[in-house]
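TICKET #2291
ISSUE: user wants both folds in one file
ATTACHMENT 1:
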Amino acid sequence: MSMHLTKRALTAAVIVAAVVPSAAGARPLYDPPGSSYTVAVPAVQTAAPPVAQAGQGFRWDDAGLGAAGMLVLVGVGSGAAVAVRRRGGRAVMG
């Protein structure tokens, strides 16, 4: 029985190898046979250097939002830690 399975697997491998083209001989569809495949190198363009602009100073409203967000995260984390500790310290593992 194992000889039959080995022959079947070998036959399937030969068929797959014959049908599937190799990547080494692959060409793009738009490249006609007989022409060499070349890659065009794009021209290098230089950008103008960035210009420094006058700053608007420290943004207290953005700092306040960041601090409030941090306090919310710390509060939620502390509340979760207290809730887990009051349940007996058994964490649920997935």
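ATTACHMENT 2:
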Amino acid sequence: MTRDDVLATCLAYRDAVEDYPFGDDVAVFKVGGRMFALVSLDGEPGSVHLKCDPGLALELRERYSAIRGGYHLNKRHWNTVELDGSIDDDALQEMILHSYELVGAKATRRSTP
């Protein structure tokens, strides 16, 4: 997936909002006011930071050399994925969906009376 593909995928999710709280270089995608993806807009090949279940995060880092602990984020709960083409599009889409669902479930629980 290209950076543009990742941006389009993130924005396509229900109630996803694109924001720029850290400046024009990073697109932040939120659901329920909580971040689920941060996409670097400068540099090549680009990268996306995704929330992840801690056990799965470690497994993905072992499986793919393009995935490492979240840069400037809690490395237990976030992965940074280099968009270098080494990860199958379907696998990356699954990672984005996992992040969205993980954050969305917490946002829903938080807003439930």
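RESOLUTION: both attachments delivered.
EXTRA DETAIL ON ATTACHMENT 2: Residues 89-111 form the longest helix (23 residues).
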